[in-house]
Recover the amino acids of this structure.
């Protein structure tokens, strides 16, 4: 058994204290980017010039997270965009469209590539000062063109696991729901919002969540029932309700105070919403809410001071704080398989008792049994199983994970757990792509989160503070 001093020397190089609190700004903006031939949006000036100006403002204000809706190429113009997958951003390369004009004048480090022009792409993009994992796009299951042309464009929503600080992850959604007020429009829009709510219940279990976008809904509109599902089903708060309405939701069917553009008050309602919740790992609070249209005036002398989009941008300041009871490691592996998260099922004051891993060529499964008998197991049934029973006061404090490619997908190939007594448990096959995670002082591994199937595709560790 290694001495305490020896163990301290072993982990000093990789262990360090992560931030336990922070702030960020989030902006949701429908930028009126449909081709001019399809929709003028009653906004003066060239959409090309307005888009470039929007990017200039983004660079000036430096918002931490920006969700855009209705970002499409100009009519008749092609799409040529290079994607830097490793950096999670799009790189401008002869991409003559409104999306590209915004990016050409913006300077955010992380940016999503366009999904294509009108009739091809969803018009949804994101810009950020921080990186993310697992970005994907999903098309709506239902659309309606009863009072517009929603079905001509594959609108939908995007998802990313946003990482504003080490060990802090927020599941972030961006969407543009069906427009119009005909019965078919209402049905389609309510279906859209229900689709996002159901996705959150499957893919964001146990996680902090931030939803921003153009809902095309108002709480006061009688048939817009879908907007309320985020509160009733997902336990999300609306930043507008919290900061501008004193926590009171408007009554369906009541007279609406609709916003002018740019708005001069925050008590009016638009269809652009920002909703959120925290988790057992990280609390999330909205500290201010602003319709930020006055921050985006037209600078063209012919239209000086006029709006450059028909939507009020919605700007929210957020603060976050990590839990003193639970922490998590970064993720290892690729975004494949089904999401799992042991956090909501952890008992009070959990203590690890038995570790069990299975592996051969790759990491097939992981399992942990707690002192009260609660057991969490993930992955498949393959590989050779090995186990380690922890002694009294012994904790799992260090983990080495190695990844590799199988069938074109990144998976975890190897795991090695090291305890506070210097004992180890390892399975799988080590590769040349490995990362080590060390629990903060006073914490130990008690569960997992990630994605699995027959094997462990993606894995992060949940740490609990020991009494």
């Amino acid at each position: 058994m290694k001495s305490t001093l020896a163990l301290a020397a072993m982990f000093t190089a990789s262990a360090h204290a992560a931030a336990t609190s922070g702030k960020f700004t989030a902006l949701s903006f429908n930028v009126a980017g449909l081709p001019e031939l399809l929709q003028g949006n009653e906004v003066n000036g060239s959409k090309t010039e307005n888009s470039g100006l929007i990017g200039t403002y983004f660079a000036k204000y430096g918002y931490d997270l920006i969700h855009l809706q209705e970002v499409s190429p100009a009519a008749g113009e092609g799409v040529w965009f290079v994607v830097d997958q490793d950096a999670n951003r799009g790189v401008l390369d002869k991409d003559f469209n409104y999306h590209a004009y915004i990016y050409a004048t913006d300077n955010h480090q992380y940016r999503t590539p366009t999904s294509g022009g009108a009739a091809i792409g969803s018009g949804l993009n994101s810009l950020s000062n921080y990186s993310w994992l697992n970005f994907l796009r999903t098309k709506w299951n239902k659309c309606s063109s009863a009072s517009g042309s929603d079905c001509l464009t594959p609108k939908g929503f995007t998802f990313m696991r946003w990482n504003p600080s080490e060990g802090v992850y927020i599941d972030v959604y961006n969407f543009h729901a069906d427009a119009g007020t005909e019965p078919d429009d209402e049905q389609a829009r309510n279906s859209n919002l229900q689709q996002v709510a159901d996705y959150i219940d499957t893919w964001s279990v146990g996680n902090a969540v931030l939803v921003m976008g153009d809902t095309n809904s108002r709480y006061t509109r009688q048939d817009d029932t879908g907007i309320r599902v985020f509160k009733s089903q997902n336990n999300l708060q609306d930043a507008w309700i919290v900061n501008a309405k004193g926590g009171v939701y408007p009554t369906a069917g009541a007279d609406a105070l609709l916003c002018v553009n740019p708005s001069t008050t925050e008590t009016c309602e638009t269809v652009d919403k920002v909703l959120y919740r925290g988790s057992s790992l990280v609390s999330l609070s909205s500290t201010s809410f602003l319709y930020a249209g006055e921050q985006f005036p037209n600078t063209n002398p012919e239209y000086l001071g006029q709006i450059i989009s028909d939507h009020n941008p919605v700007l929210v300041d957020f603060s976050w704080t990590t839990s003193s009871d639970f922490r998590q490691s970064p993720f290892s592996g690729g975004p494949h398989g089904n999401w799992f998260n042991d956090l909501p099922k952890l008992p009070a004051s959990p203590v690890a008792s038995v570790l069990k891993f299975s592996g051969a060529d790759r990491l097939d499964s992981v399992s942990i049994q707690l002192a009260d008998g609660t057991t969490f197991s993930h992955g498949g049934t393959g590989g050779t199983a090995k186990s380690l029973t922890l002694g009294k006061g012994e904790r799992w404090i260090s983990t080495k994970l190695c990844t590799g490619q199988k069938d074109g997908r990144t998976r975890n190939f190897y795991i090695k757990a090291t305890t506070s007594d210097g004992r180890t448990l390892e399975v799988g096959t080590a590769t040349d792509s490995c990362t080590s995670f060390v629990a903060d002082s006073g914490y130990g591994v008690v569960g997992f989160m990630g994605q699995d199937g027959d094997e462990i595709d993606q894995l992060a560790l949940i740490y609990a503070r020991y009494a």
In short: Residues 1-15, 73-96 have pLDDT under 50 and may be disordered. The helical segments are 4-12, 47-61, 98-105, 183-203, 229-232, 239-244. The longest helix spans residues 183-203.
